[in-house]
């Protein structure tokens, strides 16, 4: 789950599907946890009549959580997605194409589905122009270091 954070801004090489999906699960769990904490804090501040201090505290915490979430997950998330594209011997720039397409209402939904399908596909066997096969037995030992 934490390998993409270890490879924070590494946009080269290849990543296994398991690395991508475990990081996606980790992001989801952290995001839901933060939403729960913020929701509880928000409901507690409604019970105060003046609303000045506690609401300001929740606003500051919300801003800090948002910045931390972006710093810890935005760059590694993009990097692991690029490496998944590389694993299929495709350019990492496809992520930009899918991001642009996501701004178009109906096409954006289809682009999101296509991106999920591509992230589920197995990579090319053996080395490709982006590096060695991450599923090769000799490369699996690198994952556990």
Structure commentary:
This protein has about 140 residues and is mostly helical. It contains 6 helices and no strands. It has helices spanning about 5, 15-45, 50-85, 95-100, 105-120, 135-145. Helix 2 (about 15-45) runs antiparallel to helix 3 (about 50-85) and helix 4 (about 95-100) packs antiparallel against helix 5. The longest helix has about 35 residues, at about 50-85. The radius of gyration is 19 Å and the shape is elongated. The mean pLDDT is about 80.
| Radius of gyration from the alpha-carbon trace, in angstroms | 19 Å
- Work out the number of β strands: 0
The helical percent reads: 55-70%
The biggest sheet amounts to: none
Ends distance: 14 Å
Which terms would index this structure?
6 helices; mainly alpha
State the gist of this model.
The protein is mostly helical. It has helices at residues 3-6, 17-45, 52-87, 94-101, 105-120, 137-143.
Could you give the topology of this structure?
Elements (H helix, E strand, L loop, with lengths): L2 H4 L10 H29 L6 H36 L6 H8 L3 H16 L16 H7 L2
Helix pairs in contact: 2-3, 4-5
